Structures are given as C-alpha cells and as structure tokens.
Amino acid sequence: MKPNTNYNQLKESYLFSEIAHRVAEYSAARQKMRDGFGQPKEGSEAALPEIIRMGIGDVTRPLCPAVVAAMKQAAEDMGRAETFHGYGPEQGYDFLREKIKAYYEEQQVFLDMDEIFVSDGAKSDLGNILDLFGQDNRVLIPDPVYPVYVDTNRMDGRNIRFADANEENGFLPLPDYEVQADLIYLCSPNNPTGAAYNREQLKQWVDYARACQAVILFDAAYEAFIADDTLPRSIFEIEGAESCAIEFCSLSKTAGFTGTRCGYTVVPKSLEAAGMNLNKMWLRRQTTKFNGVSYLVQKGAEAVFTPEGRRQTAENIGYYRKNAAVITQALDELGIWYTGGKNSPYIWLRCPDGMDSWTFFDQLLTEAGVVGTPGAGFGENGVNFFRLTAFSTYENTVEAMRRLRRLCAPKPHTV
C-alpha cells in the first residue's frame, strides 16, 4: 500500500482549526481566572462580555418559513407509500432544476436542464470537479483565496501559480498573458476579500481562458449578495463563457443552507477539452460517485425559488447587509482601508498600525473579545489583512464594532 504523499504538501493545521484552538485556549484561561479570583473588576480583560464570533462564514438566521413548510411536507411525503421517494436522479429532481433554470433566465442566461447538476454544496463540487482533469494541468489561483481551491489541487499534486491580488488592484487581479494556465479559479463576490468583478473585468478573464484553451472554475456562492445591478451574478452573463467556464453556486449563504446542504453546478454542453465533452464527463462522474441530494432537502431548495421563498430569503440577506453596513461604517470612522461589505457579506480590512494578521487576531480576541479571520490563512497576500463577516446577529455586530472603535481609536498624545 502506498499513500497519497501529496497530503504532505498540506499545512498540518487548517485555518479554522487554528482559530478554534486559540479561542479555546483564551476562553479556558479566562475561565480559570474567573474560577480563581471571582468576577473580575469592570474594565479588566477577563471582565469582557462573551466572545463575539465574526470569523467563520456560518449564518445565524434560520431557514425561512417557506423552506421549513416545504421540508415538513416532504417528510410527510416520505411517510406515505404512495408519495415515498427512494433513490432520486443523481443530477437532481426536475422540479428543482426547473426553478434554477428560471432563476438564471432572469439574468438573461438560458440553460438546458441537462446543464444543471444539483449537489450537496459548492465546496464538494469544487473539489470533485477535479476528477475531470489530469494532474499535469497548470492551475492559476488568486492570492489571497478560499483555501479549498489550493488544498484540493495540492492533494492531486498539481502545479499551482498564484495571481497577485493586492490593495493596488482592489484584490481583483486581471489576467497576465505571459502566464499559461489550464484551470483558472475565480470567485466573485470574493471569499475572503468581498471584492466583485465587473463585466469588463470578467470579459478579460473569459478572453484569456479561451486564448489559453483553459477552463474557468467560477465560484458564485455569494451572488445573491450583489446589490449593484451593473455587476454580473453569473459568469455566463459574459459572452463566450459557455465555451470555457463551469459555475458553482450554493444555497448556504443565500438561504441559510449551511447545515442543510444544497447547491448546484452548471456545466455547459458546449464545453470541450482535448476532444472530450466535460458535461458528459461530469454526468458520468456523478452517476458513478454520487447518489444525489435527498428529496427533503431538494423540496426545501425548491421553496427558496418560490415568490414567498424569494421574499423571505431576501429579508435575511437584507439583515446581513445591515450588519455589513455597521462594520463598514465603523471602519470608515476609524480610517481603516477595506474592500467588500457592499456586495458581499465579507469585509476585508488592512490591519491597524501595520500589524500582521495573527497579531491583530490575538489583540482583537484578548482585548476586545471579538474573533475574526487572519488574512494570512488565505495566502501570502493576506499577511497584513483581516476578514470580518456580517453573519453574526445585529446586536453582536453593533457591540463588536463598539469594541473595535475602543480598541483602534487614536490614542491621545502625552507630554
């Protein structure tokens, strides 16, 4: 037996595991202080209110009533012989794919049903799609980036190049024709930076991919947060993308499905590579390795796209946008540079006073009781940046920004 030695190329500690470890250590130390000395004095470090978590991108709003009602009805269906469902189609039930198809048509994107594949989330498909591509493909990934893009390719031993996303280009790198790529990862609105490409910028990437005969793997998990109608929600709004792109989308952030698990991937029928049709390959892969998403979950997902479901999920998205506005207002007042927050639930800020991101993480945790995500965990270009999410409660977001203002407010000069 020979193991996959490419796993040796992965960092031992995953980003969010390290965050959880540091928070647990701090919490234990503070509890020990409480146990040993009683309630600390007001204003001391240990007297801080409970820790506010604004790091991992998990939602706090519950599933909307339309989704819950649909899933309850689906459970009833599964309890009657005449409406029971066993194995479903691996690519998803037609009742859900029809709703997704109609949703794309609102963006003037016209898909065939056979181009839509329902999955248990974008994260799974972003990793699984690599089954279609050989290990010798050259991969181009922006830095900073969602770690899954990098780690899944390292597991397969692929050669990775990084596109330089930085403060000067607004963390929206554009293609460099001197760099040859076979697989290109794009995420817009971006995780972690919250930055979103406009149509002209995405057209440059599509033109580059076609010139390189490359495939764009486009992560649109946060498209529902786009408030600017001039920005594209789908790569397929860009001319030529159907010949060079695969799109991944998720209901996790759109409709609170982080624990329910449902997403969808679009693989155009016209997408070919080296004489092979990627749509047919993906269908073959899914029918071999995937048994589909449960009937209950897909009925809940269908309800997301109903008029009532759309209204209710829009209210939740509006709630998170309100939180984002609270965060960006505090950063504006403090004069801290940032991207995101306008068309994204993520806010990517420059660490105050030139600190590196783990130092700022520790300071924010121990002096303000707020947990964020160090930018270093997303790549070398994130070393001096930090991610906050708008997925907390409104009350906690307001309180966290009150603490941030106190922590980062200019200190008076003393003579």
Break the fold down into its secondary structure elements and pairings.
Blueprint: H1 15-37, E1 52-53, H2 65-78, H3 94-105, E2 116-119, H4 122-128, E3 138-143, H5 147-156, E4 159-164, E5 183-187, H6 199-212, E6 215-219, E7 245-250, H7 252-255, E8 263-266, E9 272-273, E10 276-277, H8 278-289, H9 295-304, H10 307-334, E11 338-340, E12 346-350, H11 357-368, E13 370-371, E14 373-374, E15 385-389, H12 394-408
Parallel strand pairs: 1-13, 3-4, 3-5, 5-6, 6-7
Antiparallel strand pairs: 2-8, 7-8, 9-10, 11-12, 12-15, 14-15
Helix pairs in contact: 2-9, 3-9, 10-12
Summarize the structure in words:
By secondary structure, the protein is of the alpha/beta class. The protein has 12 helices and 15 strands. The chain has helices spanning 15-37, 65-78, 94-105, 122-128, 147-156, 199-212, 252-255, 278-289, 295-304, 307-334, 357-368, 394-408, and strands spanning 52-53, 116-119, 138-143, 159-164, 183-187, 215-219, 245-250, 263-266, 272-273, 276-277, 338-340, 346-350, 370-371, 373-374, 385-389. The strands form 4 sheets. The chain has a 7-stranded mixed sheet, with helices on both faces. The chain has a 4-stranded antiparallel sheet with strand order 11-12-15-14. A two-stranded parallel ribbon has the order 1-13. β3, α5 (147-156) and β4 (159-164) form a beta-alpha-beta unit. α2 (65-78) runs antiparallel to α9 and α3 packs parallel to α9.
